[in-house]
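Example 3.2
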Amino acid sequence: MTFPLKAHHKPVKDYYTALETYARLGFGNEGAVRSAFAELLRHVARAYHLTLIEEFKVERNGSHIFTDGGLVDDFRLVHGYWEAKDTGDDLDREIELKLKKGYPRTNIIFQAPGRAVVIQNGTEVFDSPLDDPENLIEALRVFFVYRRPEIEEWRTAVDEFSVMVRQLAETVLGLIEEERRTNREFVAAYANFSFLCKRSINPNLSDAAIEEMLIQHLLTARIFSKIFNNPEFVQKNIIAAEIEKVISALTVHHFSRGDFLRPLDPFYAAIERTAATIEDYTQKQDFLNTVYEKFFQGFSVRVADTHGIVYTPQPVVNFIVNSVEDILSREFGRSLSDRDVHILDPFVGTGNFIIHVMRKIRKTELPYKYANELHCNEVMLLPYYIASMNIEHEYYTATGDYRPFDGICLVDTFELAEGQQAELFTEQNTQRVQREKSASIFVILGNPPYNAKQVNENDNNKNRKYKIVDERVKDTYAKDSSATNKNALSDAYIKAFRWASDRIGSEGIVAFVSNNSFIDGYALDGFRKSIQKEFSTIYIIDLGGNVRKNPKLSGTTHNVFGIQVGVSINILVKRTIKSQPTAIFYSRTDEFWRKERKYEYLDEKITYNNLEWQTITPDKNHTWLTSELHDDFAGFLPMGTKEGKRADDTGAETIFKNYGRGVATTRDTWAYNFDREKLAVNIKRCIDTYNDHVLRWQEKDKNVTIDDFVEYDDTKLNWSESLKNLLKRGHRIDYEENNIRLSLYRPFTKSYLYYDKYLNERRYQFPHIYP
């Protein structure tokens, strides 16, 4: 690409103007003059999709040094370093001292207002005064265009891997099908593993999901053994060892595991070489966390969507952990280091929250806390593996002593509310779960999954229903809500708040980073009312980023997670003696701040104590953000009410006695069309596909579930829950010409609708409104 900066560009002119201003005012110290160069670096970095991290930490021989800046990419890989000096420094002498101290030599620019030196691979490649703008441009060009070979190799491997891993996954699936027919040893091992998965994780778990776990293990075991330098992990980890039995049975007759995975050698080698360039283990964790996230998004898109897999940015984690520590001290006179303060991350992911909690705990107390009072759960295989090793390595780094972490459980957190669990995978895992269940948890923190519902039944990735948790949501958040449509309460993050609020008992702290829709969502008024009743103090840091509400925003640019929904940090404090009313404090970042600015803001503030808070006084409808609302709205005559539906003709004061949501087809592409004839053709094809399934369902294997039986092909039919239930009953559907009606698909948009009680998922009140 053409270098994105020229001598006549504004950032260059601003740089020299800033230096002249500092000189005129007599400020030549490094702290003042380096800010001007930092702006130049940021400007160029954006063109190369890099981010400048100031005060960048580098590990050297067990200790840390801090460069003035590091340029990192979206994999947290460092492309170059920057060290600034002031006008009075002897730059040559400073460079010599810094290099002796261990500063990186791969690609670093040493800069003072009047001169720049670039060193690459230990060799000085540029040295020039900067009084001429062209020299400044050349210094930056030399610095930015340099490409570390191992990183270039890594990027190439990532591009190839995204294609290759799917092909290998399909090959493994084909092999599984073949082995089912011929390999009794594999059939037995797989059946046992399937039984364990369904008993331990989800009784509705499909064969496809179980097969995916095997593929994840097979394709990633080398990464764990090589990069974490832990070749015995798959034998020692209590879950990995169980899966190894199935993989061994799968591979025993037909191929060598090494031969089978040989096409991935370039990718594995690229990961290993790249990780080897990272000396700081925290940065290595960041790198591997990103590899994990990219792996899921490329290989397991549906799983990523169901579980809301998003890597939690470090500034968010740091801020939450620091705030929890300060609130423990202020509200309870306690600390994360204190005994009997049990800490739980119920959705641990790759372990970031537990690791940062460990760094807050006093070194003298860490062995006890690690062995007894740190707990975490994970329901998916890959993050469970990574979290286990990350946490164990953190403990080894802090103490010099390796101990397996017995506080991590492979379990569905919401399932823990359901009462007595059967054996969960292995006896050791079951013991860990029981120990956690018996612990008096005081702090719950983390990043719960956000996913209200699957986009489409054809995804076959349903969020699981939980009898106890769902009932608790119904009895509290739903009961207290005045909304008619309460689908938002099905979101996993809402269930997480309900579960955590119950789990901490009469006192404690719940600190989650989550979807922020509860702050002002109409359907979540009951949620707001309930947490006001249950907690004594509530802190909400609104990080914005809701692209659906504000199309001027970009999820990639403005959202701290790079997603479409808004995000907030939420800290809920419960005291035995509750002050009345609940104190609610609200703070928000600027709507248009880029995510990097939000990270910087959290790093600058460190903890909740340093924020400027707005005190929230909810109105009678439990609305929190009331500044732009008009008080008279609630006095208007309603169009319809629940009471009106129940009352006689002269009962409740409403305009209409009855009302409904319209028609929800769950298959608009099929059920609506501007052309009546095309609609008829589409619906007939839909019905033919369904009726063919009815015939085949009568002859299917009795052990096959409905989710695994149906064919998910968006070009033939969109499945829904009610249609699957109809199929299970063996009910045929007949085409009826009279079912084609003229409708309003959207306001002012006429369209034909196939109005049918079977092919429309819900018709609500329309059969009564238009019989």
